[in-house]
Design a protein that fits this description.
Helix content: 40-55%
Radius of gyration: 24 Å
Number of helices: 17
Distance between the termini: 81 Å
Oligomer: single chain
Largest sheet: 4 strands, mixed
Strand content: 5-15%
Structural class: alpha+beta
Order of helices and strands: HHEEHHHHHHHHHHHHHEEEEHHEE
């Protein structure tokens, strides 16, 4: 029998329940020795002090007061933020196993459910990461074939840019399509035309989800999922896009199964399907249909979005600083000339290499990194952190650390050069993160960035449309890309 309840009583009851949950949560965590942080308010924690669109900026600022390690409270959940290269490296490298978990993120957990590679944990994550690293080596990273594939795709991108005849255009979908084709060649042995409706639909859905995941409403949903699902459609939109993506992938898997030749594995999906057959007698299965779907989706998203976003930052910065663009082009002309750029040229191009590194540092596309979680109780830098607590290794605090980058707030390629004009590697440069959760496709991404960037600057001078202002403020999203802009690609030859 239901007891009648007026709306005011219901709201008050919910608030009292939340207070009770917070009280219990606080008592549990207080048994541990968490680092100090800003005082939280009831129910909302520290949400009120965070920049709602770019919370990583507030987190970086708070480190100046609370140091390399401090605690934030998001709603009723406590989160440990780690700042600065030394502390981040200490956690992710020196205590790699203890910080290798992933927290449950409400917006994604109902989709991923522990599968794939990005948000999986424990043995399933280890199995998928081993498989991914091995397969990327087999079909991509370090292979002449993938270098040739990137060179070929660079030609298509140059042709597409030429078609605008120097008139202003938005480069998002073209660059997304070019970088997507590289990871798609490894996943599916396929290349899409830039106007292919299937590719455009996949890119649009992926872009929308990336932006939605970084919105204030997504933060609120992840903090109060049981309440916010009644007040926002963010979860519904993300799920709709993901379901369409998964339907496309599952149709693709069916075709690959029908054409599978164990002795002629053409791509990552084929290799997974072969592993799936081999694993059948094993009672603890990893190579399941669910893992295949989420893994391929993870690799498509990560392999396309991060590289394309970095390239878009690069072209915007070249327009903003034409004198730097000119110096890069002079080095390209000297070392490569009219020939096709190759990876072996990079060691002869210290200035271009420094510029690409500085684009990655300044662009800071993963400012908060992927969230981590402790896999066990861990003593770390004088504090006892409980198993399962969410940890944010704040990459912004590393890439914008003024102790390591003299002009951290400026775009300054000389951060990566010595007084003699030689390229200088910096251990503190970790845009791909470090440790066991570092980007599995790092080497492939580095190759793509170099080859696409040099080919584009070899062929074009990039300029802003007449009267346009170039804004270097990062956009809103899980990946911190530039604000929307248009550009003119002026042919050099």
């Amino acid at each position: 029998m239901m007891i009648p309840c007026d709306p005011i009583t219901l709201v008050l009851s919910i608030i009292l329940c939340l207070f009770f949950v917070q009280f219990l949560f606080g008592r549990k965590k207080n048994a541990y020795n968490l680092p100090p942080g800003p005082r939280p308010l009831p129910i909302i924690g520290n949400l009120h002090i965070l920049d709602s669109k770019r919370p990583y900026l507030t987190m970086h600022e708070l480190s100046k007061k609370y140091g390399a390690l401090y605690t934030l409270q998001l709603g009723v959940e406590k989160v440990v933020v780690i700042c600065g290269y030394e502390a981040v490296k200490d956690a992710l490298v020196n205590h790699a196993d203890e910080f290798s978990g992933r927290p449950k993120v409400a917006l994604l957990d109902e989709i991923v459910r522990g599968h794939g590679i990005l948000f999986a944990s424990n043995d399933n994550w280890r199995a998928m990461r081993r498989f991914t690293l091995s397969t990327l080596r087999d079909f991509g990273m370090g292979k002449d074939a993938i270098e040739n594939k990137i060179s070929e795709e660079s030609d298509f991108l140059v042709q597409k840019f030429r078609s605008y005849k120097g008139e202003p255009f938005d480069n998002v979908m073209n660059i997304n399509a070019a970088t997507a084709n590289i990871i798609v060649s490894i996943l599916l042995s396929k290349r899409f035309d830039y106007e292919d409706p299937t590719l455009l639909k996949l890119l649009k859905m992926n872009n929308e989800n990336t932006q939605l995941a970084g919105t204030p409403m997504a933060t609120l949903y992840n903090t109060y999922p049981s309440v916010m699902r009644w007040f926002t459609s963010v979860s519904e939109k993300v799920n709709r896009n993901v379901n369409e993506m998964h339907a496309f992938l599952q149709e693709t898997f069916t075709i690959h199964r029908e054409q599978l030749d164990v002795n002629d594995q053409r791509n990552l999906i084929d290799s997974f399907l072969v592993k799936q057959r081999e694993e059948k007698p094993n009672p603890k299965l990893y190579f399941t249909n669910e893992n295949l779907t989420i893994l391929v989706s993870d690799l498509f998203d990560a392999g396309m979005e991060t590289t394309s976003t970095t390239l878009r930052w690069g072209l915007l910065l070249m327009m903003k600083y034409p004198e730097i663009q000119k110096k890069v082009q002079s080095e390209i002309d000297k070392v490569i000339g009219a020939n096709e750029p190759q990876v072996i040229h990079r060691k002869e191009m210290p200035y271009t290499d420094a510029v690409i590194h500085e684009i990655q540092r300044f662009g800071n596309i993963g400012p908060g990194s992927m969230p981590h979680a402790t896999t066990q109780d861990v003593n770390f830098r004088g504090f006892l952190l409980p198993k399962g607590i969410q940890v944010i290794p704040l990459l912004t605090s590393v890439l914008y650390d003024k102790d390591h980058f003299a002009k951290a707030d400026e775009f300054y390629p000389e951060h990566f050069m010595d007084s003699g004009g030689n390229f200088v590697r910096k251990e503190v440069f970790i845009p791909f993160s470090v440790g066991k959760r570092s980007c599995a496709g790092e080497n492939l991404a580095k190759m793509e960035l170099y080859m696409f960037f040099t080919r584009l600057l070899q062929n074009f001078t990039f300029k802003a449309p007449p009267g346009a202002a170039l804004d270097l403020t990062p956009g809103v999203g899980f990946i911190a890309g530039p604000m929307p802009y248009k550009m003119c690609a002026i042919p050099r030859v």
